[in-house]
Design goal:
The structure is a homodimer of 229-residue chains.
Chain A lengths: L16 H15 L10 E2 L1 H8 L3 H14 L2 E4 L3 E4 L4 H25 L2 H9 L13 H18 L3 H22 L2 H19 L3 H22 L5
Antiparallel strand pairs in A: 1-3, 2-3
Chain A binds a DNA duplex (30 and 30 nucleotides) through α2 and α3.
DNA sequence: GTCTGGTTCTTGGTATACAATAGCCCAGGA
DNA sequence: TCCTGGGCTATTGTATACCAAGAACCAGAC
C-alpha cells in the first residue's frame, strides 16, 4: 500500500566543505602509522587544496581544528606537521582516561539500569571459553566497545566526550598493544570482574577495578612499548 | 659587576592577530553575565572586524576556536551566538572535574614532594582563625588557586589541561556560589582535610575527600542555583 | 674548507570579493 | 483580516589575491 502523504527525506545532509575535509584529514591521520621512520609528517595547504579541488580557506579551518585537538601543529613559515605523541603524553592520556572511566564506573553503580549493565556482559559471551586468541580482531573491537559503553552508561555525556577526545590519539597505540595474546586474556578477565562489581552495585570496587585496569595498560606501555621516544 | 656577555631578551612575544582576538573575545565572554535576561548573546563578524580594524579572516579563526571550546556556537547564515550552559551541562562539568581532581589527589600522595604538599597549606594560613567572611574576595582567589595547585602537583600536565578546559565555563558560576558565607567556611574545612590526607600520603582518603568536596559543589548548585534553565 | 652575507623561495597570515541561503518584510489576493 | 508568495536583506561559507616573515640555499671572500 502506498502512503497517502508525500514522503520527504527526513534530513538534508548538512554537507560542509570544512567538515568534510576535517573528517578526511582526521581519518587519514589516525589510520596512518605516524611512528614509522619514513612517515610523511608534513602537510601542505596548497597541495591539499589542489588535490581536493577547493580553496585554502576551508582547509585552513580544518587544520586549525585538528591543531586544537592536538593532531597537528602548525609552525608559522615552516608548515603543518602531524604530531607524534611522546611516551609521556600517551601515559598521561591513559591516566586521565583512568580517572574518567573510574568515575563512570562509580556513576553506573549509582544510576544505571540493570538492563544497561546486563548489556555489557553480552559483549563478551562469545569469548567465554577462552577463545580469545582465535578471534583477536573481533575481541579488539569488543574491547573498545566495552570501554565506550562504560562511559556511555555513566549517563554523563561530558565524561564520554572528554574520553573520546583522548581516544582519538590512542587508536594506533591501542590496536598494537591489545594484540598481544597474553594481555588480551588478562584484559577479558578484568572486564568480567568489573562487570560483576557493577552488577553488585559495589561502587568502590567498581571504581577501583576500572581504574586499575586502565592504569595497567599504562604500566604495560611504559614497560614494553619502545617505538615511542 | 656588569656581565661580560651580551644579554639578550629570551623571547620575542609571538604576537598574532588571531591570538589577540581570541583572548579579547574570550575575556569578554567569560567576564560578562551571559545569564542576564537582557544579555547580548549575538556576535557579528563584520561588526567586530570594523571595531578592531582588521579583516574577517582572523576573527573567524578566533571564533572557530571559541566554538570548539564550546563558548560560542555558529549557525550557518544565522550568526554567532554565545552559548548558555544548561544546568545539566554545568553539573556534568563538575562531575568530570571531580574525576580529574580525585585522580590528581591520588597521584600527589604517590609522587609529589613534601615541599609541594606543604605549599598547599600555606595558601590558607591567613584564614586559620575563621576570618573567612572578612576577606571573601581573597578567599575566592585562594580557593581557585588551591584547586589549580592540586592539579598541578599531580605531575600530570594533561590532567590540569583538561580541567582548565572545563574551568573556562565555570568562572562565572563559581564566583557566585563561593560568595555564600556558609559554603566558604565549609569549603575551607574540606580543603584542610584534603591537605591532611595528602600529607599523610593516604591515597584512598585523599582521593575520596577530593571527589566528595567537588561533588558537594554539584549538589549545592543543583539545589540552590536557579538562574540556569 | 668554512664562514658570512644576501637572495630566493616557501609558507602561513591577512584582506577582500563573491556565492549561497535563511529569515524577514511587504504586497496582493481571497 | 489572514494567508501566501516573492524578493530583499543579513550573515556566514568559500575562493582568491597579496603580503610578510623567515628558512634554505648559494656565492664569494678569507
Amino acid at each position: 500500500m502506498l502512503p497517502n502523504k508525500l514522503q520527504v527525506k527526513p534530513i538534508e545532509s548538512t554537507f560542509s566543505l570544512k567538515e568534510h575535509i576535517y573528517e578526511t584529514l582526521h581519518n587519514g591521520i589516525t589510520s596512518m602509522n605516524i611512528y614509522a621512520d619514513d612517515a610523511q609528517l608534513k602537510l601542505d595547504e596548497r597541495q591539499l587544496s589542489e588535490q581536493l579541488g577547493i580553496s585554502r580557506t576551508p582547509i585552513r579551518e580544518a587544520l586549525a581544528r585538528l591543531e586544537q585537538e592536538g593532531l597537528v601543529t602548525v609552525i608559522p613559515r615552516r608548515g603543518v606537521f602531524i604530531v607524534r605523541k611522546s611516551r609521556k603524553e600517551i601515559l598521561e592520556m591513559i591516566t586521565v582516561w583512568a580517572a574518567l572511566e573510574s568515575m563512570a564506573a562509580r556513576l553506573i553503580t549509582l544510576n544505571a539500569s540493570d538492563e544497561g549493565i546486563a548489556s555489557l556482559r553480552k559483549l563478551f559471551t562469545s569469548f567465554e571459553n577462552g577463545q580469545v586468541q582465535a578471534h583477536i580482531d573481533e575481541y579488539s573491537d569488543r574491547n573498545i566497545e566495552f570501554h565506550q559503553s562504560i562511559l556511555e552508561l555513566s549517563g554523563c555525556a561530558l565524561l564520554k566526550e572528554t574520553a573520546d577526545r583522548l581516544f582519538i590519539h590512542m587508536k594506533g597505540i591501542r590496536a598494537r598493544t591489545i594484540s598481544e595474546q597474553d594481555r588480551a586474556k588478562r584484559s577479558i578477565i578484568d572486564h568480567l570482574h568489573i562487570i560483576e562489581a557493577l552488577e553488585a552495585r559495589d561502587t568502590e570496587l567498581a571504581e577501583r577495578l576500572a581504574r586499575e585496569h586502565t592504569l595497567n595498560l599504562a604500566a604495560h606501555i611504559e614497560a614494553h612499548v619502545d617505538y615511542l621516544d
